[in-house]
Amino acid sequence: MFVDPHLPRHIFGWYSPRLGLEMPIVSYGDRGHPLLVYPTAQADFLENERFYLIKSIEHLIFAGKVRVFSIDSINRYAWMNRSVSAPEAARRQALYSSYVEDEVVPHIRRVMNNPRARIGVTGASFGAFHAANQFFRRPDLFDTLIAMSGFYDLEPDYTHGYKADDVYFNNPVAYLANSGDDTLRRYRDECDIHIVSGQGAYEAPECSKQLSDLLWTKGVGHNLDLWGHDVNHDWPWWRKMLPHYLSNKVRW
Question: Is 9-248 a CATH 3.30.470.30 domain?
């Protein structure tokens, strides 16, 4: 079993008109701080369960510290689909961001019976990019970021020189550089930011440092945590990182 059979687990979903797709969502637990988890790469909403990431935090879900929600990635229709042009991938990314903000967040708030709940967000690898993008776009909706082994700049690997609003407003290092005072104040005073990376095989700690340096130039306090050179870009480490942060670091 990927999760304890006694763990409250509910699969729901709906057709998203903006995406033109059926979009499932799974929740684990029945109380606690809401946490939205993104999958890696092109994966689906159950990937974090299949790779035992949910199992790694099961004790915290049972204890009522956290209630987890997991959704599908857009990458197989956008950035990781070689048949899709950069302008179209950017358009689909923008639609995905609005799907999360205007469909997923209201659903989580309904389930939590709290119309003003702010949500934690996390992910590993490409999931860390999506988590960070969602968090920095809308700190009024999201209060905590745990970004594991991620990158935070779409250029040049994915945009291929294409520049437009759909890219700019979904590329954290771009829009963070120009964030206004009110947004920066919210990051500083109302948010909890953790940027985590290993330094071993296939990791890119320089991407985490890039985001960290940018935040410091804006006076935004955060935690940059670089794990050792034996820490690889792989699930066994993410299964250590996430429970460590949920147990010891977040201010819930």
Answer: no
